[in-house]
Give the backbone structure.
Amino acid sequence: MVLQRDLSRRAVLTTALGALGTLGLAACGSGADDAAAPAGQTRKVATDLGEVEVPVNPGKVVAADFYPSFILQDLGITPIGVCEYTEDLVHPAYRNLLSLPKIGPNGQPNVQEIARLAPDLVVSMGYASGRSRMQPVYDQIQAVAPAIVLLSSSQAKFWRECADRLAPMIGREAQGRKLRDSYEGKIAEIKKQRAAQLAGHKWAYISQGNNSGTWTLNMAGSALGGVLADAGLQFGKEATGQTKNGQEFSYEQFNAIADCDVLVYPVTYDGKPRQPVQAVLEQSTFRELPAVKAGRLYPMPNYSVASYRIATDALNDVDKILAGL
């Protein structure tokens, strides 16, 4: 439904600030398909919470959680506030986000901080499974400013679905199309130029498990796993045909990836495995795997795929590995 804006915004903000606890935010800048649109002009867009009237050329956009700030920046919009990020996990192209005002941890946005920034648009992206938990927060956001809420049920498709949907909503369709074309063009290039390497190798994407003494085999349903699948990589027998995020194994079960001759694992942007991943790599049974003994264990800094730019850089990482096989 269309949000009603005939109440005084000052009155709404006063009520929100007095009664609400937590919420989240970010914001935006200039340059877009609709950059010349008159101030105050709006359009109706279909969000996952119903139809919302939003600015045609928003000037102050709040990103209420992890994904929007990356996607907004890809689209030429610089946020004015973001959630808290771990510095060594932020892609170098987005390091400016670290110096912006923080509105709380991811998933715990603060409505008071959003109200202080006085946004003309809030963008939130989350999983459909968490909608009931987050609905009170969405209601609070809508009391502060028009809100675009986009929900996804797939980790692998999350960033792409949200980026493709958001771009035309905020007048950045041309920028969005360019980003999509770059990503899809790189996929086509890899499949054409690395056909022999793609056909001749099986890959496994591994990381730490959720429990002590375990590791995870990430599959096509995970963020990076979806990019690897897009590139045309072949997975080992345990992951072939699987669309789930991944499966946890004990340290005694590294034989699950013994048929893979290329292994990749997540690292920070300074090249260091996170401590739980390092523990997996140090296991003697892991070091005995054929791929490891053959020197085909590769770090993947762009594993936390949150935008087309990061996904395309992940493809570049894959291309470099393929070129050396």
Summary: The domain at 9-180 is CATH 3.40.50.1980 (Rossmann fold).
